[in-house]
Design brief:
With 388 residues, the chain is an alpha/beta fold. The chain contains 14 helices and 14 strands. It has a single domain, classed as Rossmann fold. A 7-stranded mixed beta sheet has the order 3-2-1-4-5-14-11, with helices on both faces. Helix 1 packs antiparallel against helix 10. It binds S-adenosylmethionine.
């Protein structure tokens, strides 16, 4: 127990350090909020044992998640390009591409055949990344049956369109609530082992209860090979609470996103719900993921944290590599400031490009508007490795 506590203090200190580095949000750290989260983790918190009411709420929430994502329309490229947040979406996509390519490079040094689990795959937004990474087998799982159908369709289209000499990976598609059901019961080959599990923008839905978060982690990690990786992206509880604490209401945001908590100053480790809306559309409720707790829970599945970085830190490190910079331009992950004669900025609101104006005096720079940057800098990237 002592060892467990000291490692948490470590993790806490690292998080606190990051607060001062991650300056993009223009907010100041609130030590009371972070210590309140940590206090709860240290044990002086209410009982988490499930009650009947809680179980009903959890099941309602799962239905809400599935219904929400099932209803989401697949938007064509032209439509997506018109969005106010097109560059932020491209930026997030670039970040996932770099993360996935890096991890596949590492795995390939040790293994010839690579098998991947895409947990919470959605409509298959990462299929091309797996194809470019030359993997051999992919298992896609999601709670939303319609998303899984569309993902499978996209995979079939990708195979059909590919060059006859192109070897596309084989794939399996599973509809499951991965915070409640075990994927191992649904796999075609119950002995299958994964080299990578990728969980992009998903884990925060499972932190409604300890049981759900544990089942999600179990699905992500229990079938990983020793030396295999669990990678993902999730909102940073510190960043969310920090911004909430300096706001004068239960909410904070800007012209592209808004986060609304039910109350302030009380942040339970599980079930701490908030609403996230993007471009005015309210998403399904999400739950805070307190990262030191996430890290501790992953140890149960023999997982060691390799790194956790804010999107800002990850971007600043990876963009130094020329191939990532080229990919960034190709994916249009940043917009040009000032725009060329045919171009138009994503926002014409006052102050959205002041940060770019300061550095663009001599030549155009690539940037995101202030509002998009504030939205994307809420997130974290993490990489865990399965111990032998
Ligand atoms: C924000 S989307 C991300 C989709 C995809 N990973 C990506 O990066 O494009 C979140 C996805 O998580 C899925 N999801 C949420 N809760 C889940 C659960 N309990 N089990 C499986 N999938 C879940 C949703 O259906 C949705 O497809």
């Amino acid at each position: 127990m002592m060892a467990q506590k000291s490692s948490l203090f470590e993790a806490d200190r690292k998080c606190a350090d990051q607060d001062s580095i991650g300056a993009a949000s223009q907010t100041s750290a609130s030590s009371s909020s972070s210590s309140s989260l940590k206090r709860q983790w240290d044990g002086d918190e209410e009982d988490h044992s499930p009650s009947k009411k809680q179980a009903t709420e959890e099941s309602l929430h799962s239905q809400k998640v599935a219904t929400h994502y099932n209803k989401l329309q697949e938007r064509g490229l032209a439509e997506r390009n018109k969005s106010r947040i097109v560059h932020m979406r491209n930026f997030n996509n670039w970040l996932k591409s770099v993360l996935i390519a890096d991890i596949l490079d590492k795995v390939r040094r040790r293994r010839r055949e690579v098998t991947v689990l895409d947990l919470g795959c959605g409509k298959g937004g990462d299929l091309l990344k797996w194809k470019k990474g030359h993997i051999d087998k992919l298992v896609c799982a999601d709670i939303a049956a319609v998303s899984i159908e569309q993902c499978q369709q996209r995979y079939n289209d990708m195979r059909r369109r590919g060059h006859p000499n192109d070897r596309t990976f084989s794939a399996e598609f599973i509809t499951a609530d991965c915070s409640k059901e075990l994927l191992s019961d649904k796999l075609q080959d119950p002995e299958l082992r994964f080299d990578v599990c990728s969980c992009q923008f998903v884990c925060h839905y499972s932190f409604e209860s300890e049981q759900q978060a544990d089942t999600m982690l179990r699905n992500a990690c229990e079938r990983l090979q020793p030396g295999g990786f669990f990678i993902g992206t999730t909102p940073d509880a510190y960043e969310l609470v920090k911004r909430l604490e300096v706001s004068d209401s239960n909410s904070f945001g800007n012209e592209v996103f808004r986060v609304t908590f039910q109350k302030k100053a009380d942040y339970p480790l599980f079930g701490c719900q908030y609403d996230f809306s993007l471009e005015g559309v309210v998403n399904v409720p999400e739950f805070l993921v307190y990262f030191p707790l996430f890290e501790e829970m992953a140890k149960k599945y023999n997982m060691r944290l390799v790194y956790k970085k804010t999107f800002k830190e990850f971007f600043e490190e990876k963009v130094k590599d020329e191939k990532n910079k080229v990919l960034m331009q190709w994916m249009q992950a940043l917009e040009q400031y000032p725009p060329d004669e045919r171009g138009q900025l994503a926002s014409d609101s006052l102050g959205e490009y002041d940060h770019a104006k300061r550095v663009a005096a001599r030549r155009p720079v690539g940037t995101l508007s202030k509002s998009e940057w504030e939205a994307t800098s809420i997130y974290l990237v993490y990489v865990f490795e399965k111990m032998a």
